[in-house]
Amino acid sequence: MQDPEIAEKIANHPCYSAEAHQYYARMHVAVAPGCNIQCNFCNRKFDCANESRPGVTSTLLTPEDALAKVKLVASEIKQMSVLGIAGPGDPLANPKPTFRTMELVARDCPDIKLCLSTNGLRLPEFVDRIVDLNVDHVTITINMIDPEVGERIYPWVAWRGKRYTGREASKILSEQQLAGLAALTERKILCKVNSVMIPGINDEHLVEVSRTVKGLGAFLHNVMPLVSAPEHGTVFGLTGQRGPTPQELKALQDRCEQDDGAEMNMMRHCRQCRADAVGLLGEDRGDEFLPETFQGREIAYDLAGRQQAHEEIERWRTEVAATRQTLNIATGARIPDVPAAEPVRPDEVVLVAVATKGSGVVNQHFGHAGEFWIYEAGPGWARLVQTRDVDRYCNGPSDCDEDASKLDRTIEMLSDCAAVLCSKIGLGPREALEEAGIEPVEIYDLIDKAVAEVGARLVTDRAPAEVGTP
Ligand code: CLF
Ligand code: SF4
């Protein structure tokens, strides 16, 4: 059943609704530099790895500059609907600039949703402030609920003027995180929990984390892969701790989703954005908004223009949803914010990869795709289950088809997919995909429709071969 209050909250939030992320953008402002804990996957030179991919840094802004930037971006990218504060350190370890920024944005940009991402250590003390500021969405990164697991992730926690280490540190952190989560859900704030999947350390444990946070009222669980390399200079990077493969990540997300029939909502489309990310998830337009474009400038807020742009998006979204309903296609969303068929997963599905620039359409050239969206596909079924980064190997017609090693990596990344849907594909990659047993499908159509149709055909085509297979 659709809960209208929740549906309204997620309707244009690109992280809380996979469907919305095809149309709406988010931006982050980097106003929070410090942190009160240490994670073994973090290097303070970079953005908070609990919400970001390590290896990128953001320019720190004052709350006033952050407001100017929000106004500028809001006028240029009208589908930007959410402002998140996610670093580069922990927002609640820097409460003054974090809340000052939110106050200013709430004052001048009334149609922008406010979003916060935190390690949760100081969450309980700020619950009232969060409620007062109308922050609708809070993300807490919870990587463990067992201090024995935690001591392998967190070397220390700074708490009430003292530095704690070992299990005691993780015990304090976990208690604060869970108390904060419970207090927020009690106040009807929509909460997402992020967890970094660290193979051999917390991967098995995350199923229990998922069950626990669901019990405390978390709306969504986002299990993200550890991104770890020696050049990041992190403890895990230097000790060779690996991250999970996309297949391992999906398997764990599936387990969390179905654990004991608990049916936790799992986020499958996180891009591990940087602390100053701007644009649709998966694109970063931060370079268009360098400090000299907004710092110290008076920027007008185009509320009417934004409302008009959002109305146009909603008209198109309604059309896409109507097509989905007519064709009886389900997307698997448990609380759909726009109508789809009842989520009944067919017995047999295949994975297909989609190249898209957004708006719900297969509209990107294979060689231009920096990422592929992985769908479960079958009769009446088109469910986004993952996004995977690949190197763009084509920089234009002159080198199209040429960089074989990048193409090999892309094909390796898509090896468990039965087909790739894209608007165009060159001869070289077409042949290479076919050789790898992946069908290239050139198509320009609605993603849900194309995925369900191709999925239905592939499932039927495969059926005879699988009859009698042990
Ligand atoms: Fe930003 Fe995070 Fe809010 Fe989204 S990101 S503070 S909830 S507006 Fe989104 Fe980016 Fe993943 Fe975060 S894709 S890293 S989940
Ligand atoms: Fe780094 Fe974020 Fe962990 Fe703080 S909470 S140590 S900024 S990853």
Rg from C-alpha positions? 22 Å
Q: Which structural class matches the secondary elements? A: alpha/beta
Number of helices: 13
End-to-end distance = 39 Å
- Would you report the number of β strands? 15
Bound molecules: FE(8)-S(7) cluster, iron/sulfur cluster
Overall geometric form: globular
Order of helices and strands: HEEHEHEHEHEEHEHEHHEHEEEHEHEH
What is the CATH architecture assignment of the largest domain?
Alpha-Beta Barrel
What name does CATH use for the topology of the largest domain?
A: TIM Barrel
Q: Quote the average pLDDT.
A: 89
Major sheet: 7 strands, mixed
CATH superfamily of the largest domain: Aldolase class I
CATH structural class of the largest domain: Alpha Beta
Helix share, percent: 25-40%
Number of domains: 2
Strand order of the largest sheet: 9-8-5-4-3-1-10
The multimeric state of the shown protein is single chain
The amount of beta strand, in percent, is 15-25%
InterPro entries: Aldolase_TIM (IPR013785), Di-Nase_FeMo-co_biosynth (IPR003731), DiNase_FeMo-co_biosyn_sf (IPR036105), MoaA_NifB_PqqE_Fe-S-bd_CS (IPR000385), Nase_CF_NifB (IPR005980), NifB_C (IPR034165), rSAM (IPR007197), rSAM_sf (IPR058240)
Cofactor: [4Fe-4S] cluster
Organism: Frankia alni (strain DSM 45986 / CECT 9034 / ACN14a)
Pathway: Cofactor biosynthesis; Fe-Mo cofactor biosynthesis
